[in-house]
Design brief:
Aspartate Aminotransferase, domain 2; Aspartate Aminotransferase, domain 1; alpha/beta
Length: 389
């Protein structure tokens, strides 16, 4: 049976807007359209109050203070501001440490930000991961033996859903006297997060937690203060760290999405985890040789990254036009070459090309799961040219 709409199982690329979030955003599009920085009049002050209320909700989600939240356009901007901003400040104050460490499986915006620093005299260090997708802490400890400015490790991988042990990583980083940055775009709302574990800088985005696209945040620790420099000049908004007029509708939506994530995270995880288990079991029974990429235990509830026994993933996707899944990061989805994340975990090119990312979310139904299972099984049976590992 063909569904009335495409079945969306790509919730790690983005999530649908929760209707409750949309309801909170609408008044700031239509009723009060004021600039939140125009505090000389009542409408501007009301818009500012809405922004500050949302900032408090975002902060509460990660155990931060509202004044530690810098609002941005999304996680890519937040990651750039954290990494390049820390480097800029180090240059300004004559900080001698020049090593910046990250992982081979990080999001492209982190990897490229770290690599860009080489032009300014910094030493980018890209650490490998294990076949599980997890960082070997001994490898990090060895890298930290050289004086290090910053370590950037994502909380949850955007392709595999693998959860890194951020508290353990942060403890090593703090012991070495370096700054700890965590890209938590995929982690927030899915696992418990508390910046008290030793994180100095944390990047967030709204559209991974059923909020709007185009708004994110960077947590910047106040005590002891994490020092970063702004990336561009302007009107000195956001404590001078991120100039530019904020969008109250987007920020208000982010705030409500953060509140819902805080209150519904456990219930969401339980229901989503049950759906994932049903899909995994259905596919595994029908397709002997199906492999789950990455560690099974240290994984968010909604992710399945699967290597199919035969057939290219792109071909399977073409055979499932009513099913929205992906082969990896949305930022790299136009690339033909295999996922760099899977290759960093030791998969061959052929294995990576047979792999699909399935992301289950808050609005996924059991009927969606049943349809997906049937569609993928039929598509797999119709793939023509097996790729051997």
């Amino acid at each position: 049976m063909t569904p009335n709409r495409p079945i969306f199982l790509d919730n790690q690329s983005t999530t649908p807007l929760d209707p409750r979030v949309w309801a909170a955003m609408v008044p700031w599009f239509t009723g009060n359209f004021a600039n939140p920085h125009s505090v000389e009049h009542a409408m501007g002050r009301d818009a500012e109050a809405a922004v500050e209320c949302a900032r408090a909700e975002i902060a509460a989600l990660i155990g931060a203070e509202a004044r530690e939240i810098v609002l941005t356009s999304g996680a890519t901007e937040s990651n750039n501001l954290a990494i390049k901003g820390a480097a800029r400040h180090a240059i300004r104050v004559g900080e001698p440490r020049r090593r910046v460490i990250t992982l081979a499986t990080e999001h492209k915006c982190v990897l490229e930000s770290v690599r860009d620093l080489a032009a300014d005299g910094f030493e980018p260090v890209i650490l490998p991961v294990q076949s599980s997708g997890l960082l070997d802490l001994a490898c990090l400890a060895d890298a930290l033996a050289t004086p290090t400015l910053l370590v950037s490790v994502m909380g949850v991988n955007n392709e595999t859903g693998i959860i890194q042990d951020i508290p353990a990583i942060a403890a090593l980083v703090k012991q070495a006297g370096a700054l700890m940055h965590c890209d938590a775009a995929q982690a927030v709302g899915k696992i418990p997060l508390d910046v008290a574990c030793g994180v100095d800088l944390m990047s967030l985005t709204a559209h991974k937690i059923y909020g709007p696209k185009g708004v994110g945040a960077l947590y910047v620790r106040r005590r002891p203060r994490a020092r970063i420099a702004p990336l561009f000049s302007g009107g000195n908004q956001e404590r001078g760290l991120r100039s530019g007029t904020l969008a109250p509708p987007l920020v208000a939506g982010f705030g409500i999405a953060a509140r819902l994530a805080a209150t519904e995270r456990e219930a969401d995880a339980q229901r989503i985890g049950a759906l994932r288990a049903a899909l995994w079991q259905h596919l595994l029974t029908a397709l002997p040789g199906l492999v789950l990429n990455g560690d099974q235990a240290h994984r968010i509830a909604g992710n399945l990254n699967l290597c199919f026994p035969t057939g290219a993933a792109q071909q399977m996707m073409r055979l499932c036009p009513d099913l929205c899944v992906s082969t990896g990061s949305a930022c790299s989805s136009a690339d033909i070459e295999p996922s760099y994340v899977l290759r960093a975990m030791g998969l061959s090119d052929a294995q990576a090309l047979r792999s699909l990312r399935i992301g289950i979310g808050r609005f996924t139904s059991r009927a969606d799961i049943d349809f997906a299972a049937r569609a993928l099984i039929v598509a797999h049976s119709r793939t023509l040219s097996p790729l051997q590992a």
